[in-house]
Amino acid sequence: MTEISSMVISHAKATVEEMEDAWQGEIEDILSQLSSHELVYECAVLKTCNRLEMYVVSPRGSSVLFHFAKSMGVSSRIVEFYDHEESLYHLLKLSCGLESMIIGEDQILGQIKDLFTISKNAGTMGKILETAFSKAIQVGKRARTETNINRGSVSIASAAVDLADEMLKGLQGRNILVIGTGEMGTLVTRALSHRDMNVVYLANRTYEKAKVLADELGGEAVDFVSLDRYTQQADVIISATSAPHYVLKKATVERSLMNRSDNLLLIDIASPRDIDPEVESLPKVILRNIDNLRVINERNLQMRMEEAKKVETIIDEEYKMLINQYKRQKADALLSELYSQIYTLRKHEMDRAVNRLGAYHTIGDVECKVLDDLTRAIANKVLAEPTKVLRNAAEYNDEAFLDSACKLFNIKPYAKKEKENCK
User: Fold this and answer.
1) Which residues does UniProt call coiled coil (predicted)?
2) Residue 43 belongs to what H/E stretch?
3) Catalytic site residue 43?
4) Fewer Cβ atoms within 10 A, N terminus or C terminus of the chain?
């Protein structure tokens, strides 16, 4: 049976280090590797700072993903494998923020939208996965519209700011240095823009990007080559770049400690990490990373528990609708091919009849219209009962019956045809 299977590596079981080691390449690389497998008809990948998820449509999806994880060297201790229905339910919960480190966070919905676009552009997403991800995006929007699940800290970025605020007993009069002006850095800056502090410095390798964000949200753009000077002035440094190496090294931090009386708080929310872990050995340095934000999550969890119950009710309702949608698709795909076969045959035989009659009589438009209506009516009446029976079989998950119908009429399963069309 060709359905969705998924593999999930997330903060629920994996540490920051294990997440970093899980996969070092780009999403497009994973999509290319997965889609090249002869048993994978569709695939999609979600990669964030605290999760890596792979979805495939395959008759042997669990086996394909298990061997893929093994080839990546991923420990079975941190990976979870889901079947079709588990994958769908997990995806709906994920889009609503119920699987996030910060319950109800909004960022994951945007990341799912991005994944949807990347996979479609790569040509690896077909009708089966598109149905699932379209529903997930719709449900994620509905959960945030009809409940307060995203009230308060709703992202890793805002949680980082809350952590800084808590540890320093307030940010008033503090100097904050944000390294990185990408998605996460921008979210940090937005969260800071509502706080009462002295100044926010924005550092980026491309000064112009930092300047644009500083002009938009307030703050001072910093040239990356001047990073040393601004680390010395900072009370808090929040780093959120996409660099593959450390951007804040031990030597830089060590120089910033000269003549410092107060502690320096470093918060690393990048994956892979931006700040050399060795800085924690330095005096007056406090280092926190994504793992430490679990504390913020625990506090938010209690506050949002009642809202999460409301979201789960929405998910259960939408999940049933999604399952029924897939059931209809199974029958509709088969019926589409069956109708195509019968209508092709009808047209062929009608044309033959018109040609034969034309040998004896002049056949005009009226006669052709009568023959067309007659053959169409016969075809529709012949197909009426099979249509009802096949849809009923799909509704009650009678896979054996649907497979027999495919064999009887020599119809290939939907996913196999998609794979052939992509080659």
Assistant:
1) none
2) strand 42-48
3) no
4) C
